[in-house]
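User: Need the bound-state model for calcium ion:
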Amino acid sequence: MTPYEYKRIYESEAFKKESIEAGESWGALYQKDKTVFKVWAPFAESVSVCLYRTGTDGEAGAEGISRTAMEKTDTHSFSCTVPGDLDGIYYTYEVEREGTKTECTDPYARACGANGLRSMVVNLADTNPAGFAEDEKWSQKKSNTVIYELHVKDFSWQEESGIREEYRGRFMAFTQKGTSYLGHPTGIDYLKEMGITHVHLLPIFDYASVDETGSGEAFNWGYDPENYNVPEGSYATNPYDGHVRIRECKEMIKALHQAGIAVVMDVVYNHTYSSDKAFQVLAPFYYYRQNEDGSLSNGSACGNETASERYMAGSFIRQSVLYWAKEYHIDGFRFDLMGLHDTETMNSIRKMLDTAFPHKKILMYGEPWTAAASPMAEGFYPAVKNNVNMLDNGIAIFNDNTRDAIKGSVFYGEKPGFVNGRKGLEKEVASAALAFCDGGHPFSMQSPAQSINYVSVHDNYTLWDKLVITAGLDDYQKKEERILKENKLAAGIVMMCMGTPLFQAGEEFGRTKYGDENSYKSSPDINCLDWKRSVEFADLTAYYRDLISLRGKIGFFTDKSMDALAHIQIIKAEEDMVNLLIDNASYGRTLWKRIFISFYAGAEAARIELPAGKWQMLADGSSAGLWKKRRLFGKAGKVEKEINTEPVSLCILGSSEQIS
Ligand code: CA
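Assistant: Bound-state model below.
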C-alpha cells in the first residue's frame, strides 16, 4: 500500500473503532512461568517473536534461542505465549508485510540491551532497590513549587563534584551524599541546600545518539527517543544488562525523594529519532502525522512528528506516562514540543493521572509551540499557547512572554529585555508578575497555575551568556559586577511572579557555555555544571537560595487560582520600575501581612515611594536574605514613606500591618 492509501484507511471511522477495540495491554507481559507477547501490527501477514541471550550481536553467546510464530488475535493484533522464566531474555519481532520480513524492537518494551537494539523481557519486581515499595508513598511536602532543570551527565561530570568516578555522569551520582568542593556542598547535598522542590531531568528514557558502549565522553541532551519506556543506558554503570539501568534509575529517584525533592521527567513523545524503526515496521505511517499526499510531516524539525490524535498513538503516550508514574514514581512530566500534541490527548493524560493518583498532584507542563508547521488532523487542536484555555487548568506552559520580557528574545542574541537595558517593557513585566492572567493578551491563561516562569533552560544562551552578549562584552568567565546585578534582578522577577518558577541548573552560579547557543551535542566539558564556579559565585547562589526560601514564606504565592489576583496590585509600571503590593494577610499565619516588591531596571539610583505604614527590608539588590537578620526586625529596621534603590535592583519589603 502507498502512504496515501494507509492515510485514508487510518483516518476512517472503521479503523478507529478497530483500534479502540484492540485494547491497551501490549509488549512482553512477564510471569514467572511464562511470558505473553502481544503486538499491534495492522496489515502484517505474519509476526514472529525472536528470542536471544544477549542484547547485541557483539556479546558472547549471542546466538538466537528461538523463533515463535504469533497468532492473530483480532483484526490487527498478534499474540503468543512462551513457557519458562524469560526474565533477562532479549527479543525482537519479525514482521512480514507484502512478502518482506523486517526485524524490529518492541516499542512497548520495558527493558532493552545496549543501545536499545533488542528489547528485553523483565521481571520488574526484581529491579526495585531496597525500600522502593515505601518510596511509592512519597509525595512532595513543600507547597511552593520551584523547579530546577538538570541534565544527568551535567550534574556530576566534573571531577570537582567529588562524586566517585564510576558514578560520574550517571544515575548513581545522585545517591552519593556528603560530597563537597572547598567546603561547599556538591551533588545531592547541594540540591537539598538550594531548597528547590522539584528536579526536572532532561530526557532519561533511552535515546539514540550516544553510543552506550563508548567511552562516556559522548554527550547529547537526549531529545532523540529510541525506547520510550526504558531508561537511557549511557547513564547506567552497565548498559548491556537490561536490569541495571532500570534499577539505577530507580535508585536515583529514591535518593532524590529521600532528599525531599520530587522528580519531573522530560518526555519527548512528539517525534522519534528514526523514521523507519519499530513504529514504522509494525504499523507503517500510523504513529506519524502525514502530509496530504501521505508522506511524513515534520513539525518537530527532526524528520518526523508523531500523530497523537490517532487513537493508538495517543494511547501509547498515555500508557507510557502512566507507566513511568507508577513503576518509577515520577512526580511530573514536561512535554517537549507540546504544541505537536492535540489538546484532547493532553487533557486525557491529566485526567488519567488524577484518577490513578488521587492523593498526589503530578505536575504536567510543556512547551506550547512546535518547531515547524504541523498538519494536525481536522477537529483537533494543537496544545499551543493560543489554545492554553482549551487545556485543563492542571496543564501549564513555558511562558516565553515572561522569559523574553525579562532578559530579551531568544531568537536575537543581542536584543535585551527589561533587566539588561531595553526600555518600555514595564507593562509586560507587570503582566509577567500576574502570570499573564490580567487579560488583554493574545492568549488567555485560565489561572496562574498555567504559567511556568523562567529566564533560561537548556535551549539557547545561558542567562549569564545572554547578559554578557547584550552588554557588548565577550569574557564569559569574568565575574562582572554589572552582569551580576542584572542576573540577580532577573532571578528576583522570576521568583516573585505568580505561577511556578523554573530555572536551569547552574543559572544560580552564572553558568556559562562560553557563548555556545545550542550545546545539544557539545562536549560534556562545555555542558557540565562547573563546581569551581559554584564556589566563585557563592554570593549569587546564596541570592537564589534566599529568594527561594523567602518565596516559600509568602503564602500568597501558594495560591495559583484566579482568586489570588484580588490580593495583588500593580502600583507602578513606568520609568524602568514595576512595583507590586501583595495582600498576604489572608494566607494563614504569616510574618508579613503585606509585601511590597519593586523591580527597578534603571541605570541611576532612584527613589521608591512606599505605601502607607512601616516596612522592613526583606531583600535588596545585594542580598535576598535581609529578612533572616532578626535585628532588623526591631524599630531601628523599619522604614516608611520612601527608600532609595540602586540601579538594576530588586527590593522586597514586608509589613506586619494590615492594609487600612
Ligand atoms: Ca540509548
